[in-house]
Hints:
By secondary structure, this protein is an all-alpha fold. The protein has helices at 11-26, 31-38, 42-49, 57-66. The protein has a domain at 11-66: 434 Repressor (Amino-terminal Domain) (Orthogonal Bundle). It contains 4 helices and no strands. Helix 2 (31-38) crosses helix 3 (42-49). The radius of gyration is 13 Å and the shape is globular. The N and C termini lie close together (7 Å). The relative contact order is 0.20.
Amino acid sequence: MKNISTEIINDNEFDLICEYIKLRNKSNISQSELAKRVGIARSTVARMERNLHSISLGTFVKLLEVMDYKLEIVKKEEDKNEPRQNVFNK
Length: 90
């Protein structure tokens, strides 16, 4: 899998995309199946996962709902200075 583009993305966005990819992999659902169930093109999912395309918040919420997850807003914690886990080269 190609690495995520980090040229126009901040740390919070990167972390969100990484967490979403981990959840999709854990849910054993392909990009194609996820896209079909949400009603979007597979290429849209692939480009979003690589940060080559921004999707609407509504579409992102639908992607999560298909995988039985929801988006919540929580107060951020102090940085733990932990290195990011690379989910793109598995």
